[in-house]
Amino acid sequence: MKKLGLIVLIVVASVVINWLALLAGWWWVTALTGLLIGLFLRPVGGGFLASLLAGGLGWGLPLALLALSAPVKSLASVVESVVGYSSTDGVVIIVLTIVLGGVLSIVGTWVGVAGRQVVPLRGWSARRAVE
Amino acid sequence: MRPDEGRGKTRVYFLKGFSGMKKRRLPLRILHLLISLLVAGGILYVTAFGSGPVPPLGSALNPGTGVWTSASSAQPLQSETLHFSGLQQLVTVIFEADGTPHIQAVTDSDMFWTIGYLQARFRLTQMDLLRRQGEGRLSEILGKEALSSDQFQIMLGLDRAAQRDWRALAVNSSTRQGLQSFASGVNAWIDQAEQSNTLPFMFKLLNYRPATWTPIDTLVIQGVMTQDLDFSTTPLNYALLVNSLGYDRTMQWFPVLPTDKQSPYDLGPFGQATNPTPLPSQLAFSQDTVQSLASMQQQISALPNAMRAGSASNDWAVNGPLTASGKALMAGDPHLHLTLPSIWYQLAATSPDYDFSGVSIPGVPLVLIGRNQHISWSMTDVQNESTLFYVEKTDKARPHQYYWNGAWHTMQHLVYNITVKGHGTVRQDVYLTVHGPVYPSADGQKGKIVSIDWMGALPSTDSAALLNVLKATNFNQFRQALGAWTAPTLNFVYADDQGNIGMISPGYYPIVKSGAPWLPLSGTGEADIVGSIPYSDVPQVYNPPDHMVFTANQRPVANDYPYYIGTSWGDFDNGYRADEIEAELISKTGLTMQDMENIQNSTHDYLAGEIVPELLKTLRGNVGGGNAQRAEELLQSWNGDMDVNSPAASIWWTFWTNYLTDTFNPWWQANHVPVKQYSGLTVGPGQTSLDEDLEAWTLQDQHNATFNLPNGTTRDASAVMLQAFGETVNELGKALGSDPNQWQWGKLHSREIASLLGVDALSYGPLPAGGDEWTPNAAGGGQISPNSPILSPAEHGPSWRIVVDWGSGQAVGTYPGGQDENPASAWYENQIAQWWNGQYTPLIDGATARQQAGSVIWMLSK
């Protein structure tokens, strides 16, 4: 349960970091938080899942919050038609946004996992890592 | 084993050169890392910089700063106080529920600043596109698709003209100060939007930031509007017709003066009419020259927004015994290409020197059409000939030189580098003769070199003229202010609170030394422009004895006007709207605001009222049974209204189209008029001269020789009418079914208000619509194919309607759009429905707006 709680904590922290970074225009921070998850979170499968949640929620929740007061779906529909699609009433743009957050986080995690396999972190205990 | 032993070993293996079993796994891990880095790098690169048509998705879709902020901007406004260092005093802005702002400023400068701020807040994308269009910088954001437009604009030189006009403005002039204050207001919004990441979504999708706004940008946009109303290729079209039909026949069918009876507003008397004749050189163009002219015509016609696209504006005023109040009534509806967002941004403003309301063009800090406390004005396009083409005398042995006034001169040479998104830069050389820019360039052009002398490129003081119009309180001041107007030439209608009405058409009307300006002129100096019609002689009337003034792009003066100003083809309208308006005004007394609105929304076809009785006379006893008989019956009971549900309207329009083609097409075919290459030469209802010819012959000359066939077969109007009617019944039967009652006009004819971005989903319509090319509520659609009666959607129409009743002091207006360019906003297209249904909104004052339900107040302070 402790491990699960820690994973949840890391996901929540990542979501908050991603959200704040997005407000500053730093969309690439999502990839960095993903990288950190990949470096430190174990098992790998859990890391990827946490990363996906951190990225998807980090991008999806601000959008959901905005939708409470602003015509997000209408704007999505406009953007969709401007880029040449018009069959999903904006859903594809909303999904693309959330997926983009997830993908950025996941690729960061992937690099983290791969990097850790090649260059283990000095002084970092596997037991201290979340397994 | 220590917890970190394994990691240490791995590191050791790595340092030792990948030996042992784990050594063999290490390369795979490195490969894994490299692959992950490669994929991540690729994704991050595309996300950061985009790829091809894909914008940088990271910044574009970022929920905090990307396109989504336009959803926030689309939320209803809230009353609030905003602080700006650029303001001198407190400014109050009261927004009506439909988004119309009322600016109350303590200084003139603050008023212009606030107009700039508001226009940018609600129309920044449109403003940026307009200035880019004029400056030839669309390719920078849209890519090579916009390159030909940019090359044309750079050649034409709106930017050069704007920079020259800006330099010519006196440092302390109110015009200069107004333009600077306006630019500061625009830039205040740009700065605010950049800092809050709330730039409109198009900037984020196209991945660019708006440049700082300058007064030159405003002057460029004025140039764009001038081009839209004033640039034409009439002489090129005439040259092509002369080349195939011959000069005499061309001028017989496309005469300078109209063949039908028209209703000019300035009846003179003038005295001796002018009669310019072509110089021999104008009638003997070499094939090289014709090829150059044809190529030029084809290229310019293919460009979007390069030249005048159509005419249909109306304005009129009545006073005295014609009105219910005895005071003045004024109505105006300028017709333009209808877009979303609209070309108009409605506003009202007060400051120490100004108190006006009406509509402005985004990017221009002035109300072009509207009212102040004492006068009101609107405008239509004069449509005189403002573009002259000069065939330059050149010599291959003297590159980039031209012969003028007895000597060889070197062309001025300018070099531009056009940035094309995704394709680097493209060099453009512009060569200028004394007449103007050479099209497209003097380099590598086959055939003759042709330069363009366009009045829109002349030094302009239009901004100063309009500022003085805004302050005028009587006709003398109004007329004096417009003395500084250059281009486009416009028919300004006038009415005031003292019951006076008037009309004046200021601007630059070129007078040439010799030759026929409706044909390309010789560039050697013999046909140069020597001046303009004196202001005292331009068309104008004040308080005419019949108590009415009206224009609808018809020739504004009687045929004995002593100056050449344009031709019946390619310049002036055929006058049916003017005739209809005159008929309506004459037929009533006690006119009210409601009568004005009814005329503006009228879909009555004046020409049908003249021709259908002649057609019915011809049909009587000559029609068999079936659909032809039913069609005849429908015409007999028709009132001439091009109503959306009227089957008779479909019969009339299709008949007239067939009547024109059956009369003229045999001659076109026999003389090989190149309609396939130049669709502008196709016979149809859009050819004003041919409409006028056929109207006149049908009413007065039914045995005109043109009805005969080129092979000598004799025909008269009746024979051609019968033929055309038969074809009409067949075509409508094929297209709309066998029951003539189901041939509603709305099945052939529609109207569309297209998105400025060219996105169908952001457009309005197309929807079935009433009206046609020459009804006051004009909605001309083009023929899609020769054998089909179905028309393309009308995209041109009444862009703004205003009626001012100086008896009550009230004014109303409406336009097809909304105040906000953001498609997610409630103000994007909220005014279209009322416009479509012929309804209006009162132009109220600030105090009334403040009391209105749903109004919002912004306090802007230092």
Detailed description of the structure:
The complex is a heterodimer of chains A (131) and B (862). Chain A is mainly α and 131 residues long. Chain A has one domain. The longest helix of chain A has 28 residues. Chain B has 862 residues and is α+β, with helices and mostly antiparallel strands. Among the domains of chain B are: 45 residues, no CATH class; 131 residues, no CATH class. Chain B contains 25 helices and 32 strands. Chain B has an eleven-stranded mixed β-sheet with strand order 1-32-2-3-8-9-10-11-19-20-24. In chain B, strands 12, 13, 14, 15, 16, 17, 18 and 22 form an eight-stranded mixed β-sheet that branches. Chain B has a six-stranded antiparallel β-sheet with strand order 25-4-5-29-30-31. In chain B, strand 26 and strand 27 form a beta hairpin. In chain B, helix 12 crosses helix 13. The longest helix of chain B has 30 residues. The interface between A and B is large, with 51 and 48 residues.
Explain the layout of strands and helices:
The complex is a heterodimer of chains A (131) and B (862).
Chain A: H1 2-23, H2 29-40, H3 44-67, H4 72-82, H5 91-118
Chain B: H1 5-16, H2 20-49, H3 57-61, H4 69-73, E1 80-83, E2 91-95, E3 101-104, H5 108-135, H6 139-142, H7 147-156, H8 158-168, H9 174-195, H10 201-205, H11 215-230, H12 234-245, H13 247-253, H14 287-302, E4 314-318, E5 329-333, E6 335-337, E7 339-340, E8 345-350, E9 355-360, E10 367-372, E11 375-381, E12 387-395, E13 398-404, E14 407-410, E15 412-419, E16 425-433, E17 436-439, E18 449-454, H15 462-471, H16 475-482, E19 490-496, E20 501-504, E21 510-512, E22 521-522, E23 529-532, E24 540-542, E25 548-551, H17 576-587, H18 593-600, H19 606-619, H20 626-636, H21 647-670, H22 688-700, H23 717-736, E26 750-755, E27 764-768, E28 796-798, E29 801-805, E30 810-814, H24 832-836, E31 841-842, H25 846-851, E32 856-861
Parallel strand pairs in B: 1-32, 3-8, 7-26, 12-22
Antiparallel strand pairs in B: 2-3, 2-32, 4-5, 4-25, 5-29, 6-28, 8-9, 9-10, 10-11, 11-19, 12-13, 12-18, 13-14, 15-16, 16-17, 17-18, 19-20, 20-24, 21-23, 26-27, 29-30, 30-31
Helix pairs in contact in B: 5-9, 5-11, 8-11, 12-13, 12-14, 15-16, 21-23
